[in-house]
Amino acid sequence: MAKFYASTRADNALVGAGSRAGARGQGYWRDLDWILLISGLALTVLGSILVWSASRADLASANDPQSYLKRHLINVVAAIILGYLASRLNYRWLRAYTPIIYGASFFLLLLPFVPGIGVTVAGARAWIDLPGGLTIQPSEFMKVAVILMMAALLSERKDIETEPSGRDFLMALAAAAVPIAVILVQNDTGTVLILGTVAISVIAVAGVRSRWLVALIGGSILSILLAIQLGLLKEYQVARLTSFISPDQDTGASAYNANQARIAIGGGGWFGTGLFEGPQTQGKFVPVNESDFIFTVSGEELGFLGSVLLILLLAVLLWRAAMIAWKADDKYGRLVATGVLAWLAFQTFENIGMTLGIMPITGIPLPFVSAGGTSMMAVWIAIGLLQTVRLHEVRAEI
Amino acid sequence: MSERSNLRLIILGILIFSLFMTLISRLFYLQVMEGDEYRAAAENNSVREVVEPAVRGLILDQAGRPLVSNRTSIVVTIDRQKLNQQGEKGDLVIKRLAKILGTTPESVSERLLPCGTEGAPKPPICWNGSTYQAVPVASDVDPQTALTIMEKRSEFAGVTAKLTAVREYSGPFDVNAAHILGYLGPVTEDQITEQGQSDAYDRLRRTDSIGRSGLENFYDTQLRGKPSVTTLEVDTSGQVTGTVDQKPAVSGDYLVSTLDAKLQSVVEKQLVAAIQRAQGQGYPGDSGAAVVVDVRNGQVLAMASYPTYDPGIWVGGVSQKQYKSLVKSDSLSSNATQGLFAPGSTYKVVSTAAAGKEGYSLYSDYQCPKQVKLGTQIFRNYESSAYGRISLGRALEVSCNTVFYGLADRMWEAAGGNDAKRDSADPIADAASMFGFGTPTGIDLPGESAGRVSGRTFKVQNWEAKRDTWCANAITGYPETRKTDPKLADYYTALDKENCADGFRWREGDALNAAIGQGDTTVTPLQMAMAYAAIANGGTVYEPKLVKAIMGADGSVIERVAPTVKSELDLPKSTIKFLQNSLPGVTSDGSGKSPFIGFPLNQIPVASKTGSAQVTGDKVSTSWFASYAPANKPRYAIVMMVTQGGTGSKTSGPSVRKIYEALFGIDGTTVNPNKSVLIGGAPSKELPVIRPDGTPVTPKGKMSGVVTAAGSG
C-alpha cells in the first residue's frame, strides 16, 4: 500500500502541484480528521480566553492590558498556518527530508549555548532570542524532529511485520538520546522527561524485542535514580521534582507554586468563580499562570465542569491521534502518530498533574492552551503531521 | 501491523486513558471534596504592609524658631511576645536590662503591662499600644549600652536598641510651653476602634504615635503626614511573593504658631516671679497662669501655666515615679485654658457693661459705703474702705464693691426681685455670656474648660441637678453627722430644706455676689484675656488662635489661619467707650497704680483691672491682673493670675508690667521698639521661610534663641 502511494505520487513536491490542486483540495478537506481539527481549534480558543484572563491581571496597569492576548493570537494564527502546511506535506518527501529537519532542529537546539543569543528562563537555558523581542524554545521543534527521526529509523524495514533490527533500535535510541542529553545540559528537565517517554513509547510500538524494551525502561529509571544519588542533578532540580510530595513543609519557590496552584484550583469548586473573577488568578498569586500554570486559571475561574471539559477536549484529540496510529497503513505513519500521541498525552498529564500536585513541577506548557509561540507552533505542526498520516491511510484504503 | 505493535499501542492507549482518569479524579477531589478548605486558603492569601512613618512636621514660633523639632534617639524596646517565649528567663532579661540601664527591674516591667490588666499602673505608664508592638522602655540610651544590648543577643532576647526619630521639645530661650505644645503617645485601642474599618494607607496603625495633648493633638493629622507604605503580597506560609503597591512618605506639615519664643520665655519667667512674689508674702501661691493676646485678631502671643513640667519627659515613655510626681504637682492640665477660677473684681467690667446696656447712667455719682447689709449677711468692700459718693469710673479705679452691689441690687429689683420668674431678666449674666464667659473660647487646643456664669439660669439648672439629693437629705437629716455633731447636722438639714424648697431662686445675695465676680462664677484666664481684648478692640470677641499658618515641609503655604470672630459685644458704643476711658485710670490712679509706678504711662498708657477673688474656705484670695495696652491704640492684652496669691496689684501686677516692658522695649522710662522681645517690635506679618530641605530660616544672632557652640553670651 505504501508502494502504491510512492509509485503514484513519487514526484510530488512539498505541496501538490497547481494542476491537481482542485481535485486534491476537495479530497483533502473531505478526508481530514475533522474531530481532531475541531478539538484542537476548540482547545486553542479556550486557551486564548484563559491566557487573556491570566495576562490582563498582570497588565492591569499597563497601557494596553490586552497586549499579551494580541501577541498570543498572532502566535495562534501562525501556528495554525504551520499546521496546515504540515498537513499538506508529501509523505515520502517528509520521510526523505527527515534527516535534514532533524539536523536543522538539532542546530537550533544548540543555539541557546551561544552567548548573546541564548536566554535563560526560570533556570533553563533553553530559549533563543530573535530580533523584535521574540524568543523561541528550540526544544519544542526538537520534539517533532525526534519523533520523525525515530519513526523513520524504526521503519527502515519495509516489511511491516518485521521487528526492527538491533542496529535500527540503537540508531533510534541515539536519535532521541543525543538531544535529550543536550536538553538536560540546558536544565530543561520537563522536556527531558517528555522526550524520554516519547522515545520509549515509539520504540515500544515499533515492536522491538521485549527484552530490549524492559532493559530500556529499567535503564531509564535506574539512570534517574543514579543521577539523584550521585548529585548530578542540581539541588533545585531535585527540589522541583520532589516538592510536590510534601509541599506544605517546603517553603521554597517551587513549593510555593505548587501550593498556590492547588489553592487556586481547589477554590474553583464545581462551577468556578467565573471568568476574570478568580481571586488567585486576578490577584496574581499563581506565577506564570498564562503559560505553565494556565490550568489553574481554568480550575479557579471555570471550576470542575469547565476544567473537565478542557481535559475531555484533550482526551478527544488524543483519542483521534490514537485512532490514526491504530489505523495507519504503514509503520512510519503509525510511529509518527504514536510519537505525537505520547508527546501530547504525557505533556498534558505532566502539566495538569503538576498543578494538581500529583506530578513534579517542571516548566512545560499545556498543549494548545498555554501561551508560548514555539509550543503552540509545535503542537499545531503535530496536528498537521497526524492529518498527513490520516490522509495517507485514507487514500491507501481506496 | 505486527501483533506486538498493536498490543503495545493498546497498552499505551490504556496507560494514557488511566492517566487522564487520574487527572479527573484528582481534580474532583481538589475542587469538589476539599474545595472549602482551599477557598479558605485563598482568602488567607493576603497582603502585608511595611510602614515607615513620615517625618512629623515641626512647630515653629511666629519668627520661625522651632519650638518642637525632631531628633534621633537610641530607644530600647522590648518585644513582649519574644520575652514571654523565654518563660522564666524573661525575668532574667529584664533584670539584666534594668542593670545596664541603671534602673530597677520593676520600673522596666511595669511599662510592659497592658493598661487595664490586673496590677498594671495607670496610663501613661502602662502600655497603651498594641500587643504586637514592641514597648519602648528607655530613650536616649548611650551608644555603649545600646551596643551591649545588640551584641549579646542571647542575654537580651526580645530587647532591641535602635535609632528612632523622637520629638525634641527644647525650644529656644528655654521655652517650656508644655501645655501648649503637648506630647505624643502610642495610639490607643479606642482610637483604632473609632477609626472603624479603613484600608486607607494613611490610616492610623497600632504602631503609630499620635499627639495626646496640646497642639500635637489638635493638629495631629496635619503634623503626622502620610507614611511610606509598601504593600507586599504574602502567601499562606508568610512568603513574600511580590510588591503590590508602593506609596512614598509625605512629610508632615509645619505649624507656624502665633507664639513668640522669646516673649513666651519672658512670660513664663514672669509667671514664676509672680508665684515667688506671692510666696514671699507668705501665701501658698500654688498655681497660676498668664496669657498675652493680640487684641486685633485673637492671636495668642504667649501663654503660660504654673506648675508646669518638662514636655520631653514623655519621649520614650514616662516612669511611674515621674508620672506620680506630675499628677501630684497638678502640672498636667493648663491653668490658662483648663483651670477655673473665681474672677473677682476683674469681672466688674461685665457688671459695668450690663449697667450701661440697661440704661443706668455711667457718668453719675454712686455711694461707696464700706459695707452693705442684706438681712443677716454683710457685704463688704476690700479692707472695708469707704470712698463716699464717687463716679462709676472712680468706682472701677478703686474697685469699690458696694457701688456694684448697689447697681446689681437695682437690676435684681427691676427684674422682679424675689418674685421674679425663672426666665426673668438677668443683665449681668447676659453680659458675661456676651464677653464669652461660660463657653469655651474656641482656642485650637484640646480639653478647654467652658467655665460657669452664675445667674438665674445656672441656679435653676443647679437646682434641677441637685434637688433630689437636697430633698432626701432634708428628710433623713444627716444621721451620720448627727451622731457626732447634732448642731452641725441641724444646720445642714435646715440648709438642704431651704435648697430643696426654693434652691432654684436667684436671690438678692446671689445677685450681689455675681456683680463682683464672686459666688458660683468661674472663668479661665484665657477667657478673661479675650474679654479684655474685646473691650480693647471696641467690642469684638475673637476666638483665640495658637496657629497662624500651616505650611508644607517644602515651604509652601497650605493654610493661613484667618482671625475668627466668636461674638460681637451687643453694647452701646458709649458703654465700651466708657470702659476704655475708665480702665487706664486703674493703672494711673487706682488699684493698679502701685506696680506701674515709674512706667512711662504717658507714652504707653495701660488699661487694667485688678482682682483679688475670695475663695471658699480660708484660702488666700486669687490674685488677678487683667490689662491691655497701649490704651489709646490697643494692641496687646495681658492677663495674669496666681491662686492663693494675694492681691492683684501686689502679686501679678509687677510681672504684667515686666511683660509690657519686654513687649514695648521699655528701659526705665524710654520706649524703644527695637529693644522689644518681638523682632521689629511687633509680631511678624510675614510667614517664616522654610528651606527646601525642610529647615526653617531662624532669626539671626541672639534673637535666634539658639546657643551656638561658639557661645552667644
Task: Give a concise summary.
The complex is a heterodimer of chains A (398) and B (713). Chain A has 398 residues and is mainly alpha-helical.
Any idea what the radius of gyration of chain B is? 34 Å
Report strand % of chain A.
under 5%
Helical proportion of chain B? 25-40%
What is the helical fraction of chain A, as a range of percent? 55-70%
Intertermini distance of chain A: 10 Å
For the residues shown, what is the average pLDDT of chain B?
87
* Largest sheet: number of strands, sense, barrel closure of chain A: 3 strands, antiparallel
Strand arrangement in the largest pleated sheet of chain A: 1-2-3
Which segments of chain A are poorly predicted (pLDDT under 50) over 5 or more consecutive residues? 1-24, 247-251
Number of helices of chain A: 15
Largest sheet features of chain B: 7 strands, mixed
Give the beta-strand count of chain A.
3
Give keywords.
heterodimer, A: 398 residues, globular, B: seven-stranded mixed beta sheet, five-stranded antiparallel beta sheet, 23 helices, 37% helix
Could you characterize what this model shows?
The complex is a heterodimer of chains A (398) and B (713). With 398 residues, chain A is mainly alpha-helical. Chain A has helices at residues 2-8, 21-31, 34-58, 67-87, 91-110, 138-154, 166-185, 189-205, 210-229, 235-242, 253-268, 279-282, 294-327, 331-355, 373-397, and strands at 118-121, 124-130, 134-136. In chain A, helix 3 (34-58) runs antiparallel to helix 13. The longest helix of chain A has 34 residues, at 294-327. Mean pLDDT of chain A is 82; it is low at 1-24 and 247-251. Chain B has 713 residues and is of the alpha+beta class. Helices cover 37% and strands 19% of the residues of chain B. Chain B is built from 23 helices and 25 strands. In chain B, the strands form eight sheets. In chain B, strands 2, 3, 4, 5, 10, 18 and 19 form a seven-stranded mixed sheet that branches. A five-stranded antiparallel sheet of chain B has the order 12-11-23-22-21, sandwiched between helices. In chain B, helix 13 crosses helix 16. The longest helix of chain B is centred in the N-terminal third of the chain and has 31 residues, at 3-33.
